[in-house]
Amino acid sequence: MRDTMDQIMEELQESRTSEKKEPEKPRKKSYWGWIAVFFCLLIAVLAGIIFGVWYHRGHSAEYQLARAAECFQAQDYEQAVNYYLRSKELGNTDPEIDFALADCYNSMDNVGGYENQLLMLIESGTLDQGQLERAYAGLINSYRTRNDYQTIDSLLNACDNDSIKSKYQNFQAKPPEMSYEEGYYQEILPLKLSSNTAGTIYYTLDGSEPDQDSLVYTAPIFLDNGEHIIKAIFVNEYGLVSDVATKRYQIELQIPIAPEVLTASGEYSRPTLIQINCEDDESVYYTTDGTVPTDRSTRYTGPFYMPLGDTQYCFAIIEEDGIVGEVTERSYSLHLNTDISVEMASVTVYNAMMQTGRIRDYEGHAGENNIYQYRFQYPMTIDEEDYYLFAELHVDETGGSIRTGSFYVVQAYTCICYKLQIDENNNYSIVEIL
């Protein structure tokens, strides 16, 4: 500028000199042109600088991020969103930008934008495990705030990350699992239903669709002979209902054959053993009232004496899984050819015990408030002679009784009382009562 001004001054000086010498031919040369040129150049430079700054800011992803952070800090969330979006347009693919965008939407109470942003992150497939867990945590927490558990269930069903599905399994309602694969079986199945988390299982046994008015599963379902269609649903603690689980079972049990009872039905006049021909691994049970035996009935452990009077026996093999085999029935009528009754034999036993001082009276009172009673068992044969067998019982103060291990027999025809002895080989013998 100084050079220009000097030049202008020189031109002005020359112009004045020239005017003095040649007044008739004035020479005019404007210095304003140079000023105009100078200012045009200055404006051009400034414009270039301004344009450069503007262009840099508009096309720098880093600048956009910095401005976005400043706006977010100032709670100007809408402007922060614009800067974050511009940064993405400029090629910034860092997932943290999307998380920052989600935070902006969340701060703006834009629930739809917040959830959509996290869904986009999850579906992008670019997140590491930590980022993926952050995205799911934020999204599930948002759904929970709105009690939208159905969407949580759908979200987790579409998830292929086992760690995340395990972490949030309480929010899922998976169909119940059944302990046996469907198919054909030859045994009773104790079918168990299970669920992945806390809740209630409802089921049907007739193939109908289950709902919350159906049977509630609390214990194994025992499937026996026939065809069974089991359908079940699971309702978790948030009220979510699973899909229906369905399985079909065909059960054809192998029923054990009826046991071979060697003692035939009929009338008997002497003590008789009831015997069954069975294998060691077979469990035979019997009843004396004509009903079908169960595993709570009396178990056959070896030959036993027929009871007095008329008796209707039912015998059956029952397997470990509870299958009851075919039943063998026997009718017995035992009446001894003697005038000595059980009542008479019982009085004989009590008399013999009072004579020995074992008891003081027919009620069985003994010393120190002890009471002994003698209960008839059955008629039996010892050395080809018939006897009535009585077991000695000790009665306590509550009225309960327990066998003492002593047995007494009364000869069925002479009514003489003896003490019964049993050796280690289970052989019987009688001795006189002293």
Describe this structure in words.
The chain has 434 residues and is α+β, with helices and mostly antiparallel strands. It folds into four domains: 79 residues; 75 residues, Immunoglobulin-like, CATH 2.60.40; 75 residues, Immunoglobulins (Immunoglobulin-like, Sandwich); 90 residues, no CATH class. The protein has ten helices and 23 strands. A five-stranded mixed beta sheet has the order 2-9-8-5-6, with no helix packed on it. Strand 21 and strand 22 form a beta hairpin. Helix 4 packs antiparallel against helix 5. The N and C termini lie far apart (156 Å). About 1% of the residues have low confidence.
Q: What order do the helices and strands come in, and which of them pair?
A:
Layout (H helix, E strand, L loop, with lengths): L1 H20 L10 H27 L2 H13 L3 H13 L5 H13 L3 H14 L4 H17 L3 H9 L4 H6 L9 E2 L4 E3 L3 E3 L1 E2 L4 E6 L10 E2 L4 E3 L2 E11 L8 E7 L8 E2 L4 E3 L4 E2 L1 E2 L6 E4 L10 E2 L4 E2 L3 E10 L5 E11 L7 H15 L14 E12 L2 E11 L5 E11 L5 E6 L5 E4 L3
Parallel strand pairs: 2-9, 11-18
Antiparallel strand pairs: 1-4, 3-7, 5-6, 5-8, 8-9, 10-13, 12-16, 14-15, 14-17, 17-18, 19-20, 20-21, 21-22, 22-23
Helix pairs in contact: 3-4, 4-5, 5-6, 6-7
